[in-house]
Amino acid sequence: MDFKDQIKALADRVIKLKDSVKTEEATKSAFILPFIKELGYDIFDPLEVIPEFVADVGIIKQGEKVDYAIMRNGESIVLIECKWHGNSLNAKNESQLCQYFHATKAKFAILTNGIEYQFFSDLLELNKMDEKPFFCIRYYSKERQSN
């Protein structure tokens, strides 16, 4: 099965299970971790995927944690901020992710509720997360796709 088919199968699973997933933690386990795995990362290797990654913002905001960091050679390369699938992604969530982005060396950030994935980088200004995502994925049910 190629990557496109794997993501489609994951989308079908998300649409099927979403009414049974009632919390942010359940969203992470049922939808987001499988997505990270499909991207090719070992979700069980704490040297590769770190849950609750500390991304302190200066000396005022200590202990700030982004939901997941994907690591390479001991450095964060992708930050992932997760929300419950029933919540829409909004500017407040983006602002939170932006703070984490600035506090780390990551070059990519993902804001997700397990149904929608917004991908950010620093394409416009180096080391400053862009205000708008450069790529988005959103899962739809088959009924909605046919309309």
Describe this structure in words.
With 147 residues, the chain is α+β, with helices and mostly antiparallel strands. The protein has one domain: tt1808, chain A (Alpha-Beta Complex), CATH 3.90.1570.30. It contains four helices and six strands; from the N terminus they run ααβββαβββα. The protein has helices spanning 3-17, 24-38, 91-103, 142-146; strands at 49-54, 65-72, 75-82, 108-112, 116-120, 135-138. The protein has a six-stranded mixed sheet with strand order 1-2-3-4-5-6, sandwiched between helices. A hairpin with a 2-residue loop joins β2 and β3 (75-82). The longest helix is centred in the first third of the chain and has 15 residues, at 3-17.
- On the 0 to 100 scale, the average pLDDT is 90
The total of beta strands comes to: 6
Shape: globular
Work out the radius of gyration.
15 Å
**Number of helical segments with 4 or more residues:** 4
Number of domains: 1
How many strands, what sense, and barrel or not for the largest sheet? 6 strands, mixed
CATH class designation: Alpha Beta
- What series of H and E elements makes up the topology? HHEEEHEEEH
Question: If classified by CATH, what would the architecture be?
Answer: Alpha-Beta Complex
Spatial arrangement of strands, main beta sheet: 1-2-3-4-5-6
Poorly predicted spans:
none
Helix-and-strand structural type = alpha+beta
List keywords for this structure.
147 residues, alpha+beta, tt1808, chain A, 6-stranded mixed sheet, 4 helices, 6 strands, 24% strand, globular
